[in-house]
């Protein structure tokens, strides 16, 4: 079994490298065109009966209506990530405020589900091309192309899969569910998500999009100023005024200290 997984992973890597070598980046759009437009790869998750415990857990996860909080560890981390991702997404979503709202939601829902936000962005690009109202030929809906049977399966028939946060919540929860089924095997989990289990094209496209366009390395931390540094480094520091201590009478050199220095002799 481990040997089979190693062979599959090696094939995954070879196919991925071949795709990148043939197309390069920014060639993700060309890759999508080569294999069909983005909606052609839209999710067609297969209906599978769930055990009562799994169904209850998924339903609870989707229904969690806690008020959204920041999923970033610091303001600086949020500012750096949002600025970098916003620049990459600007061509597809020109409205800056909506774009930032979408990115915050992606980061929150991905982090909540234990997924890499960059992976989720790569999947969204392949699945829907970041079109909110995308509908596949199989009926999958929204940014993450969620199949409608999920809302009934999880006992929430009134959920609107075209609503941004709802779609991201379902999509991330479903992908997490498939990863758990496959014991962390992303190749097979992506195949399940797309309804193409065992075929390499879709997992390779997602991975190429993820690492080719959405990969992200945070900038190095800014150095902290030394503890004894002045509050305003640009302000000049006045030199210390020397202190003259009185010299007792009769001390050699006292007269020289109290008198002005003799002028230099002029050359005749």
TrEMBL record:
Extent of Low complexity compositional bias: 229-244
Superkingdom of this protein's organism: Bacteria
Feature: compositional bias, Pro residues: 217-228
Annotated stretches, region: Disordered: 217-268
Pfam families: SLT
Coiled coil: none
Transglycosylase SLT domain mapped to chain residues: 108-198
Family: Belongs to the transglycosylase Slt family.
Xref: PANTHER family: MEMBRANE-BOUND LYTIC MUREIN TRANSGLYCOSYLASE C (PTHR37423:SF2), SOLUBLE LYTIC MUREIN TRANSGLYCOSYLASE-RELATED (PTHR37423)
Protein name (record): Lytic transglycosylase catalytic
Species for this entry: Oryzomicrobium terrae
